[in-house]
Amino acid sequence: xxxxxxxxxxEDSSVILNLTKKILELQxxxxxxxxxxxxxxxxxxxxxxxAILMDLNIPVKNGMDCTKEIRASKDxxxxxxxxxxxxxxxxxxxxxxxxxxxxxxxxxxxxxxDMLVETVKKYTVK
Length: 126
Prior knowledge:
The chain is of the alpha/beta class. The protein has six helices and five strands, in the order E-H-E-H-E-H-H-E-H-E-H. Residues 6-124 form the Response regulatory domain.
């Protein structure tokens, strides 16, 4: 069987975090979590991550700042991790804003779980 891919879920809402985690675990993904921007950076530096679901409104460092920091990494494996923004405030941003910081895609909240699985697969199937 193919090695399972690791997804980092950056989300400060326990409800959304747990639901997202369960959905992706059912798809055989290995899940790491971060409840704030500081934890996101620690997880990225300490683990091989295949994609990140990044809530834009997390504490400590928001999702946009975390993305900029990840993209600035000297390690190409880290700098090139696909990042999928997850936000309830997509209207505050344009796809150009996302692209400018290096976000690959975005999912609006409330999450459509079929779209979530499809989007994660798009970035993790090699």
